[in-house]
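Data's thin. Show one?
=====
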Amino acid sequence: METRVVGTTMPVLEVGLEPGEAVVAEAGEMSWMTPNVELRTTTSAAGARGLWGAVTRAIAGGGLFMTEFSAVGGRAAVAFAAKVPGAILPMPVAPGAGYMVHRHGFLCATSGVELAIGFQRSLGAGLFGGSGFIMQRVSGSGTAWLELGGEIVNHELAPGEELLVHPGHVGMFEERVGFDITTIRGIANALFGGEGLFLVRLTGPGMVWLQTLTMPGLAHGLAPYLGHDTPSAAQAATTTEAGVAGAVLNSIFGKS
């Protein structure tokens, strides 16, 4: 398998497939392909075990259905374009060396990679973080291509070292990194500081990838050009993170 990422601001991943090779992506993610690519759409790809496994994957921001792309009758090619300005990162995945990724960060992967909901280790994350703090867990064995928004800033955290991050800027981190939710200190800061009420606390050891572009930030920047009925950034974020039923239906009937 040969791959290359083309472009800078809006990159695209091109994958060259030999007979017997395949990549898996969410339904509807393919940008272009050669005629000899065979498609197989199913709920059981990317490690899902039964319908419930596919549903929990959809809750995490992935698709209820996944499509496997394989080469038939010779070398083939398929491409996947980025959905927002940013970067596409090829990441090696191995048992015990997976990643937690923001809920729309999975682009595609080789067949041995598993995609599932990433349950957080803190009760506070479940109660107060909201669906926006549910992340995708990428595990298994193979290579995954992950999409992050804007510029990427890496931090390698030493054991016990902490980093407080606005939730939207958490792109991904190694699954060994500790994750928790904390509140902004000070009532005035929380209510009037404009930074929101919650921050993500990441604790080392492990590598963290932060993204400079958030979806609410992108919606806020485009709002003046889309008419008076365009929702605010906060409303856009709420709509995007609209709960379990919305995530599942969105995966079945199409993506915004």
Summary: The CA atoms of residues 86 and 150 lie 4 Å apart. The chain has a mean pLDDT of 77.
